[in-house]
Structure prediction request, 232 residues.
Amino acid sequence: LTKTYGAVTALAGLSVLLPEGAVGLLGPNGAGKTTMIRSLLGLVRIDSGRGRVLGMDLAAQPLEIRQAVGFVPEDECLFPGVTGVQFVAYAGELVGMPSRDALRRAHEVLDYVDLREARYRRVESYSTGMKQRLKIASGIVHDPKLLILDEPTNGMDPAGRREILYLCRDLSRAKGMNLLVSSHLLPDVEAVCESIVVLGRGRVLAQGRIEDLKKPHDNEYELRVRGDLSRF
Prediction:
């Protein structure tokens, strides 16, 4: 995939195959992580290249991809004046769920992310951690085959960060959901993922299973990954 914004090249012939399971997408700001995610979801038009998500063509089936994939964006995506359960149910309707099914499923996922009575409060009253859990609920309301999370712990305190990482681990390991977790924090990715892809200037610098990349010495793995990132 290649994608430019004026003189800036966000993706420079990016070529990657993501395995099933939980995959971490690592890289500093400007590495191309968010552009890659938006390209996979059909939210930006790529300049050249081709690809498939869950067997569906990026160019020909963007709507079908978005119906099958859950997305938790880094940016604030909540709009004021609605309750938590209304927001999550609306997210379900956006991907084609009947309103009654979307509302029932919204209550289920809000229980799962531990937003119990808070579901009836307006979203603008939520804390940062509650907003992030609400976004995760909206991303899984339709039980997607793949959940993409863009910087899910950004701006959170240590306790809230642990809660989000626990949710991500549970979705992957207990619920069997495929995850793509974008982050610039290596410890967060290691806490959730089995595999990583490291990006820099829109290209893949390294990829593979974490346990394989760690051999033969843990410190060499961390130095190698951090060294790849520091070059960019």
